[in-house]
Amino acid sequence: MSTTPRASHRARAEATCLHASVGSLTRYGEPAKYQGGLYRIADNTYAWLVPNGSWGETNLGLIDCRGTSVMIDTGWDLRCTREMLNACQDITDRSPIDQVINTHADGDHCWGNQLFRDRHIIATHACIHQMHHMQPRALSALYHGSLILRHVNVAGIDQFGHYMHEMFRPYDFSGIRITSPDHGFSVSKTLCINGVDIVITEVGPGHTDGDAVVHVPARRVAYAGDILFVGVTPVMWSGPIEKLVAGLEFLQTLDVDIIVPGHGPLATQADVQHVLDYWHFVHEAMAQRFKQGMGPTQAARDVIFSPAFQQAPWAQWDSPERLVTSAHTLYRHWGAPAFNLPGKLGQMNLLRQQAMLAFELPHATPRVMRHP
Ligand SMILES: [Zn+2]
Question: Rounded distance, CA 136 to CA 26, Å?
Fold first, then answer.
């Protein structure tokens, strides 16, 4: 099911910005492509948008169920979570937040959980299992260490140091204690709160191990988490791609006017189709190169520099270099021999390769990630 372009425009027009965030620049100093802040997207239903949807510029949600509210995701650090909470204080004064839903385990969607440690926090079992894999202390150490790495002019380590330093610069990971959800589920779970149904559906693994989508049928709204990015290159840490695609196709079956993506402006079904088109293109282009015996990093580079990619809409999306990570995930599921180091070292190695690629892409944004 998909909406017509006319319906998309109408849905966007119906969202009202209640509390605009200050300034015209993003956390990375980019001109904001859309107004950030708190939006009413349906009756008593809200989205907190952070332009332009780059690293940690994460959208959050709030569903007011008359007397009690449910929050969707928390920010990468306490400061950006509090910024959202301050903006919706009028709402939470009358309907305090009693429950939080985490759509997945990436830090930028759950590292504000400790502000809700006395409330119920809900996520898929797979999400809860993955939540402790990355520690805030490790990112703090990497942020400080990257100052030194920036001067190591070998094997792209200087570019990696620059990339990581700029990625973490807007955030403060000190004092963050990962706070696990106290309620796990598999497949699906429906919360019925004062007559409002909130349907949470597990669609992972795909973006991460435990992705979930939140749907409020009566309000014709869904919160997609990070299976949906708009205007920003999506990334597939976990895969398989078939499951990620199935999650997006599930989104298409929902009868909604507005979808809040994990990153980027408010979306409609047309945006879901754009992301599906990206994954279909990537799947086919990578499979071709896999069959030719090309390694995943080389294949990602080859695809990005191909005329077909450069002429496609996603050439303009933020952070195209993320294709390196998605390529390695695809190859892993295809049973390719290990092209990467295991565990966290491997993740760092992929980010090093992403950084090197970002430096070669003259138009890649955010610009600060590639300019030393
Ligand atoms: Zn994510």
Answer: 23
Q: Residue 27: what residue type?
A: R
- Model's pTM, two decimal places? 0.94
d(CA 260, CA 214): 10
What is the domain partition of the chain in residue ranges? 5-134+176-274
Residue 337 confidence class, pLDDT cut points 50, 70, 90: confident
Going from the Cα of 67 to the center of ligand 1, the distance in angstroms, rounded, reads 30
Q: What number does CATH give the domain 5-134+176-274?
A: 3.60.15.10
CB atoms within 10 A of CB 144: 11
**Centre of ligand 1 from the C-alpha of residue 208, in Å:** 7
Nearest residue to 176 (alpha-carbon basis) of 213, 204, 222, 134: 134
Report d(CA 92, CA 70) in Å as an integer: 10
- Centre of ligand 1 to C-alpha 108, Å, is 7
